[in-house]
Amino acid sequence: MTRGKLILIEGLDRTGKSTQSEKIVKELGDEVVLFKFPERSTPIGGLINQYLTDRSFDLPPQSIHLLFSANRWEVNAKICSLLESGKHVVLDRYVYSGVAYSAAKQIPGMDISWCLNPDKGLVKPDLTLFLSNQDSSSLQDRDGYGEERYEKAAFQKKVRETFFQVFDAIPDDNRVIVDVTGKSIEQVFDTIMPLVRKVLGNNSEDYLYF
Ligand code: ADP
Ligand code: FDM
Ligand code: MG
C-alpha cells in the first residue's frame, strides 16, 4: 500500500483556508482526514484557545510559541499513523503559521531559526498551498474578523511579510503561492484542486521532515 499524502493549506487570517480545506475534504470523501491547527480540543489547545480569545490571559511570546508547537506534536502520532494507513491528511495551518506569526512579533532572540527549532522533525507536507491576498485590508470585511488576538490590520501586514521571509529561509519544493485576490470561493477551488489531485496521484514513499 502506498502511504497517504500530506496537504497543507496556509495563509493569513480570513484568506479562505478553512473554506477550501473543507471543500477538498468534501470532494475527496473517506480517503482524507482534516486537521486544523491550533487543535483547540486538546489540553494544550485549550490554553491556546484561551490565549487567542481572552485578552486578560497573557503569556510570554516564547511560551505561547512553544505551546503552538507542542500542540502540533500532540497530534503528530495520529497524523503519521493515518498517512501510514494510506489515508491522505489535509491540514488547515501548520508549521509555517507557527513560525510566521511568532517571528512577526519581532522579539529579540525569537528569529525564524529559533521559531522553527521546536517543530524540527515534524513531517513536511507533500504539497503546501499558501493562499495569498495582495491586499490584506480587504479581508477585514469578512465575517468574524477582529474577534481574536492576532486579527489586527497592522499585525497581519507584518505577518504577511514574515511569511515570505519564512519561505526564503525554509526551502520547500512542494510549496505553491496561490494568488486569491478578487477570486471567488469556486475560482480558488478550481485553481487548487488540480494541484491536490496531482500530488495524490504520485507514489512517492519517502517522507520529508522540517
Ligand atoms: P480562514 O480559515 O482563512 O480564516 P475562512 O475560510 O474561514 O478563512 O473564510 C473567512 C470568511 O470569508 C468566511 O465567511 C468565508 O465564507 C469567506 N470567504 C472565504 N473565501 C472567500 C472568497 N474567495 N471570496 C469571498 N469570501 C470568501
Ligand atoms: N497561529 C496558528 C499561531 O500564531 N501559531 C501557530 O502555530 C498556529 C497554528 O493562531 F491568528 C495563529 C494564527 C491565527 C490563530 O488560527 C488562530 P485560526 O486558523 O484562526 O484558528
Ligand atoms: Mg480558518
UniProtKB/TrEMBL annotation:
Residues 9-192 form the Thymidylate kinase-like domain. Keywords: ATP-binding, Kinase, Nucleotide biosynthesis, Nucleotide-binding, Transferase. InterPro entries: P-loop_NTPase (IPR027417), Thymidylate_kin-like_dom (IPR039430), Thymidylate_kin_CS (IPR018095), Thymidylate_kinase (IPR018094). Pathway: Pyrimidine metabolism; dTTP biosynthesis. Coiled coil: none annotated. SUPFAM superfamilies: P-loop containing nucleoside triphosphate hydrolases. The keyword Isomerase does not apply. It holds the Pfam family Thymidylate_kin. It comes from the Eukaryota. Transmembrane segments: none annotated. GO terms for molecular function: kinase activity. Its EC number is 2.7.4.9. NCBIfam families: DTMP_kinase. Belongs to the thymidylate kinase family. This is dTMP kinase. It comes from Kluyveromyces marxianus (Yeast). The lineage of its organism: Eukaryota, Fungi, Dikarya, Ascomycota, Saccharomycotina. The gene is CDC8.
